[in-house]
Design goal:
alpha/beta, Aspartate Aminotransferase, domain 1, 7-stranded mixed β-sheet, 4-stranded mixed β-sheet, 14 strands, 43% helix
């Protein structure tokens, strides 16, 4: 008798429940600045990727409302590409110092599309072990040989690239790693790719808008340009506070993606209203540099306070501040303790992070005030002390 696939899925879900790894949806009823209302409780959120606080910016909201159409009605290549899309692509290309940019519905689809369009079956994709899942999935689905190197380890990356010396190769890395919050050694990786005649691709979902001159992202922060990093992907749903993603690069890259990237060709274009909102967010992010300055000050304050309290923070200079706790149960307990104190900090557990590396993924935003950061530190220290009793 054939195995029942849904029954097997249910068994796997039950196993996650027993191991305290089951994920659950939380309903957010209202948002106001850093505050969210959930299950009748008002909480200060420390787990949003809205790093600059642009998701509620009046200019961004006005641009969304003023758009004359919501849905695009079609794929880009049929009749779905509107003036709002074109303006946003031009602004993103100019901001990141590229010839062209092309929009995708999500970062996941962008990475799948890029890797599927670039790779042939005999090509090699070398990736950091802590890359986002969509980069790993993209290489696997494209049929490339996927080789992974030790996180941020140049020697390991070199060995992997040199192990397939004659194959066409692309090295892909996150710019800022989504769970650890640290930055990739982009300058060293760019030099390696030059030496080994490989193409470098950077997923800058968590860097764009937050780091680098003019908020242009991790590549700019590393002093690199389009010649060093020919393929740049970033998202619009984090620091820019809207939704969607883009790939920026040369005219040849963008022309090729519009011809061969299946997640671009065969899906409905982003709603024009969202493209208008994202364009406004790009303008605000570049004009209101105080948001990045405030965020940097809050990060420094949090890390200084955490060091004084001996909290087990992982090394990170970005808005992502992981508090490493180890066992899933420990992360769940501290998250629950924070919620009782009016703070929302989500526990992150395997398989999102490696085994025995469960954590609270604390994210700071320009929305936050110093008093809220200080309150978070006090609550975390109290919860950690209680767990040791």
């Amino acid at each position: 008798m054939r195995e029942d696939l849904i029954a097997r899925l249910a068994q796997n879900t039950a196993l996650r429940e027993r191991e305290q790894l089951r994920r659950r949806l939380r309903h957010i009823d209202q948002v106001d600045g850093p505050f969210v209302w959930s299950q009748g409780q008002r909480l200060v959120s420390f787990c949003s990727n809205d790093y600059l606080g642009l998701s509620q910016h009046p200019r961004v909201i006005a641009a969304l409302r003023d758009a004359d159409v919501v849905g695009s009605g079609s794929a880009h290549l049929i009749c779905g590409h509107r003036r709002e899309h074109a303006r946003l692509e031009e602004a993103l290309a100019e901001w990141t110092g590229r010839e062209r940019a092309v929009l995708f519905s999500t970062g996941y689809m962008a990475n799948l599309g890029v890797l599927q369009a670039l790779f042939g079956k005999n090509d090699v994709c070398v990736q950091d072990k802590l890359n986002h899942a969509c980069l790993l999935d993209g290489a696997a689905l494209a049929g490339a040989t996927l080789l992974r190197y030790v996180h941020a380890d140049i020697d390991s990356a070199t060995r992997q690239l040199q192990s397939h010396g004659h194959a066409a190769a692309l090295l892909a890395t996150d710019g800022i790693f989504s769970m650890d919050g640290d930055a990739a050694p982009l300058a060293e990786l760019a030099s390696l790719c030059t030496d080994e005649h490989a193409t470098l691709m950077v997923d800058d979902a968590h860097g764009l808008g937050v780091v680098g001159p003019d908020g242009a992202g991790s590549v700019a922060a590393a002093g690199l340009n389009a010649s060093h990093v020919p393929v740049l992907m970033a998202t619009l749903g984090k620091a820019l506070g809207t939704f969607g993603a883009f790939v920026a690069g040369s005219q040849a890259l963008v022309d090729g993606l519009t011809q061969f990237a299946r997640p671009y060709i065969y899906t409905t274009a982003m709603p024009p209203a969202l493209a208008a909102a994202a364009h406004a967010a790009v303008q605000v992010a570049r004009e209101e540099s105080w948001r990045r300055e405030k965020l940097a000050a809050l990060i420094a304050r949090f890390r200084t306070g955490a060091a004084q309290l001996d909290l087990p923070l992982m090394p990170s200079a970005t808005a992502i501040q992981p508090l490493l706790l180890g066992e899933p149960a420990a992360a769940l307990r501290l998250s629950a303790h924070a919620e009782q104190a009016g703070l929302l900090v989500t526990a992150i557990r395997p398989p999102t992070v490696p085994r025995l590396k469960a954590r609270l993924r604390i994210t700071l935003s320009a929305w936050h005030e110093e008093t809220q950061v200080d309150r978070l530190l006090a609550v975390l220290a109290d919860g950690m002390a209680a767990s040791r009793l």
